[in-house]
Inverse folding.
């Protein structure tokens, strides 16, 4: 055991290492190193979900084989208690549930057993929505359990990405934080050697995650609106009369600097090592939200000793914009593009990697 003076010296060295040129601002790269998080981080949002159906085997295998640092997933629980990777509250958008279970099609994911969910086709919707990226082998893909995503993360001896796990609508799933702890522990992923980051929009879930997994890095996702940062101007898109959702979101701002800082303090006191703010995207679209990565916001976040991982950015013009603004990692549907931007290009093409996996 270290003597007290030695412990103090070590702590001091860590702190000095984490401080930048400005003595008030910790160096983000040193903060990332302390947390065991690559800098800058490539976080494969629902896998390589631009090129394959989100949260399915080809999406995760492709992200892994491209070299992403983390496979991102949204954690939910089946009616019979199995942890699975699904984003939406219902299965309408990403499966054939309307044809298979018409009378229950609007029910939440938690209404279905694992066997029912595994009987769904989670790939054909992608082929229909994106014919230019369709593959015959995507038809009939299954929803994955957390165990299966862990298998994929462990499955390439040349590159083992971490997992970046979000507790999705955690109030619908009481005890999911403990369930996750049990599963990760059972699989040996809490040994300190595996890369895991836990993320949530819910401050209460963050505190629960911190209680059961105090030494695993955690990130509080940020948003402007109900349950998160108070907006400058109250209102909803529906009531605004606007037609462009992305343009409406882009105008939403935190009430003031103090309100933004308050959420950084909530993140910090509930055990987070960073925040996950939204971005307003140049091309707009479904994933363009509030601009919560303005330079002053990232600066303040760093001053509080927190990292910034922004969601969800796919184009080089926005990679540059958010990196110039000072973020430390990016959630992306296009890992290949982000890896290229970070000058860590994959050795093989997307097509070659998918074919090698049988897709
Ligand atoms: O988890 C970060 C980002 O994924 C949050 O948005 O809705 O895609 O889960 P969402
Ligand atoms: Ca997510």
């Amino acid at each position: 055991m270290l003597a007290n003076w030695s412990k103090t010296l070590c702590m001091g060295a860590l702190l000095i290492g984490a401080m930048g040129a400005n003595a008030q601002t910790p160096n983000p790269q040193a903060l990332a190193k302390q947390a065991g998080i690559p800098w800058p981080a490539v976080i494969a949002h629902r896998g390589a979900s631009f090129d394959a159906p989100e949260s399915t085997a080809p999406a995760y295998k492709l992200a892994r084989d491209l070299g992403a640092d983390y496979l991102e997933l949204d954690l939910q629980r089946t009616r019979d208690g199995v942890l699975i990777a699904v984003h939406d509250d219902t299965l309408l958008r990403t499966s054939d549930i309307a044809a298979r279970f018409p009378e229950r099609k609007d029910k939440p994911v938690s209404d279905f057993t694992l066997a029912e969910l595994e009987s769904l086709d989670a790939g054909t919707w992608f082929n229909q929505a994106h014919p230019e990226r369709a593959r015959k082998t995507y038809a009939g893909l299954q929803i994955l359990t957390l165990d299966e995503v862990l298998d994929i993360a462990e499955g390439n001896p040349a590159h083992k990405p971490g997992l970046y796990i979000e507790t999705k609508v955690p109030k619908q799933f009481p005890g999911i934080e403990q369930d996750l702890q049990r599963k990760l522990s059972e699989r040996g992923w809490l040994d300190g050697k595996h890369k895991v980051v836990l993320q949530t929009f819910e401050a209460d879930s963050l505190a629960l995650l911190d209680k059961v997994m105090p030494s695993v890095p955690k990130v509080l996702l940020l948003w402007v609106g109900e349950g998160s940062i108070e907006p400058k101007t109250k209102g909803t898109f529906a009531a605004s009369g606007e037609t462009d959702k992305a343009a409406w979101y882009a105008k939403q701002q935190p009430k003031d600097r103090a309100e933004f800082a308050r959420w950084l303090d909530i993140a910090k006191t509930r055990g987070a090592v960073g925040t996950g703010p939204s971005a307003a995207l140049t091309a707009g679209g479904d994933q363009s939200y509030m601009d919560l990565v303005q330079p002053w916001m990232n600066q303040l976040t760093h001053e509080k000793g927190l990292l910034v991982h922004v969601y969800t950015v796919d184009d080089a013009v926005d990679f540059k914009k958010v990196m110039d603004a000072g973020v430390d990692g990016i959630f992306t549907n296009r890992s290949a593009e982000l890896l290229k931007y970070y000058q860590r290009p994959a050795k093989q093409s997307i097509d070659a990697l998918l074919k090698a996996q049988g897709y």
